[in-house]
Amino acid sequence: MINVTQSFLPPLEEYTQILQKSWDKKWITNRGELILELEEKLKQFLGINFITITTNGTLPLQIAIKALELSGEIITTPFSYVASSSVISWENCTPVYVDIHPEYLTIDETKIEEKITDKTSAILATHVFGNPCHIVEIEKIAKKHNLKVIYDAAHCFGVQYNGESIFNFGDVSTCSFHATKIFHTGEGGCMITKDQNLHEKLFYHHNFGHNGPEAFHGIGINGKTSELQAALGLAVFNHLDAIFEGRKIAVEAYNQFLDFSRIQKLKIRENTVWNYHYYPVIFETEEILLKVKEALNKENIFPRRYFYPSLNTIKYLNGEKMPISESISQRILCLPLFAELPPETVATLSKLINQNL
Ligand SMILES: *Cc1c(COP(=O)(O)O)cnc(C)c1O
């Protein structure tokens, strides 16, 4: 069976060897030695100033909305995982959708301003499939209208834009370390900001608002992660070069073998070092997609319809019509992609797809 992704698992003894440290100390959570070590390593590797590792990649979005004291309307993309919209509603704000660019698949920055009202407090956009939004234009709009910017950068581990980590943009960027993501801790995530005061606020919020064992800074929630997850992260971290290289080889094989006369592929934004996180293909019609999917399923190959449905069409999210996002959502399929996917398998898989176009 081949799934859309396969979690990278380091040799078990590497994991247990790291975990031994927390056994020796009898310290398994509450920001022990391993989580601190992982945060340091990630700061160095990514080129960022402040990071707080969290339980998952959804909570940091909620914490960011709280810490930035957002209210009213938040402008967002209909083409993302449901978490980037549901956090807005969960925090008692209203998601206001702006359609996406038909090739980059990120929020269409030219359509943002017409949706700004006196209730708008922020833009929450997703760098979808690791492809950056039009960061420069979004920053300009935000400055002009005094809005905050949160980037759901769940797909962006290792992505660079204009020569620096993509996590350095926006007021807050968040990432997911879920098992299906490039770098993972089983479940996990993080929040990143360049602003030290904001970093401290985010940090307090993720730790009950603690300001010392018997003091409280303000309201908080528990968004901490454990040493067990940190150990897995440290073990995976040691294999990052191989992970990126394996994915790159698989992506290049798809680029070589798929028939692009009838398939649209993701257009990566200029000035981007991409991370080979997903391999989305857009078919001419939904019928073709369903035909291809069925042919692959028959061979025990399971691609996924990321992202379907378009979030604006989900009843409880109350969105207006978004023609481009809805059309893309119906026609886009993410093909299997992971570090250990051999190019020969990609060739076979591509042939099967080409035959069903
Ligand atoms: C994975 C993902 C999330 C959620 O991350 P979790 O760690 O599973 O909570 C949020 N947004 C996007 C775009 C994602 O792909």
UniProtKB/TrEMBL annotation:
InterPro entries, per this entry?
DegT/StrS_aminotransferase, PyrdxlP-dep_Trfase, PyrdxlP-dep_Trfase_major
Keywords of the record, alphabetical order, are: Aminotransferase, Pyridoxal phosphate, Transferase
What CDD domains does the database record attribute to this sequence?
A: AHBA_syn
A Pfam family name for this chain? DegT_DnrJ_EryC1
Q: Which PANTHER family match?
A: PROTEIN RV3402C, TRANSAMINASE
As for family, the record states:
Belongs to the DegT/DnrJ/EryC1 family.
Protein name per Swiss-Prot or TrEMBL: Aminotransferase
Species the sequence originates in: Cloacibacterium rupense
